[in-house]
What we know:
Elements: H1 24-45, H2 52-59, H3 63-69, H4 73-93, H5 103-118, H6 121-132, H7 135-166, H8 174-195, H9 199-215
Amino acid sequence: MIEPNLPAVAEGKTSKPRRGRPSRAAIAEIDARILEAAWKAFLAHGFNGTSMEAIANWAGVTKTTLYLRHVDKLALLRAVITDRTGKWGERARLTDWTTGKTLEERLVHYARTMLRWSQHPEVMATRRLVEGSIGEAGEIARELDRALRDPMIDLLVKEINCLATIDGTPPSDPRELVRIFMGMVDAVREIGESQQLDSDALSLKAEAVAGILLRGRSAW
């Protein structure tokens, strides 16, 4: 897997303080630089393996500047997760999740899209961060997973409620059904990673996941 690229560390240098009050644009640029450096550092080295001093160096700011914005590493992790959730949310809104006329076609499309996203290096590194963080840091990291999953769950619940009712077999608990479906997609992802399956093989497994769910409609 390709590790996220970290900003180069300046050779014993920190950014020179500017005289006068910085502009709003300059403040926003510093904030963004800190969050980006912290995000890449957490992904590459994990929460415990990353220090505030290293993040300050990678962002090109002093430790004082960093601590004025984030009182400790936990607060910085929370800020990073909030920032990344917003960016991924924007990206997800540009994705067409509802391609297909039937429920099966839409479930297959959803599964294929999720499996394709799961192979992105940043997504894989994020999963490592979530799974590798413990304690309060782990809970904060898992907020990212929930923030990404919950809107997808809501969308699929709406799809199933609408299309399943049309063809006469609405589920008794659509949200539970969606969670089962997403669990199946996660299982396929793990199989794909362990067996190093290519995109075509994963696409076929996406069809199988939707088929298994829909063929068992008597259990809905």
